[in-house]
Fold:
Amino acid sequence: MAEAGSWFLSCRNPLLQKSKGLIVIRAPVSSVLAECSDDRFEQPEPKSLAVDKRLNKKAGKKEHHLWKKRESAGSGQKAINLVRIVSGLPNEKEAVYGALDKWTAWETEFPLIAASKALRILRQRNQWLRIIRVSKWMLAKGQGLTMGTYDTLLLAFDMDGRVDEAESVWNTILHTHTRSVSKKLFSRMISLYDHHHMMEKIIEVFADMEEVGVKPDEDTVRRVAQAFQKLGQEDKKKMVLKKYQSKWKYTHFNGERVRVRTNDWDG
Structure:
């Protein structure tokens, strides 16, 4: 009842009159209630809530602006421009490096995202010489020191037959990153040596892999086992297969993918 009384007192309807602390109703109660209900819900919003809403809107706009600023929306077009530039140049180091320096001359920050995208495009097009030039230029600038860049560069060295340069980069990776070298890079280097029939080198990389505790994938296990076999070390081949080869593998039979037990003696 107290709440109802305060509600009536707060109502500004002219059909209500207050006299000596009493409320006098000059019209039917139903019409007064309806008009007072409308009047009650037309009260202005508290100032503090309005201020909070304005602050929230401003904060949202600011966060959106920062997100757009940090996201490099034009990196795709920059990457395409870079590919077009390097594809039209002779392979001389001075010509390529000069063009790349001009490409970044007006940038406030190194366009790393665009450069990484350009490397992916060049990789899809099998332009290994261009990849080598761009990657070396990035590394000389102290940029792109990532496992992805190293993997692309090692692949380019492999496809272009530049094993000595690949070994130089690989030794730098091992000495710089030591125990943070990824499984993918170990596999890449073992694959490179396998392509160029360097069995002893495969065993060396595999030894480094075991030393830092990186478990090889199935393809690497197969390459290492074949290397031991070609070197006439059958006992070590058996040890590698027993330790790392999966007991099961998947194959297709009558149009279906089925799991079969692995033969440890498969070469």
User: Anything to note?
Assistant: The chain has 13 helices and four strands. Residues 1-40 form one domain.
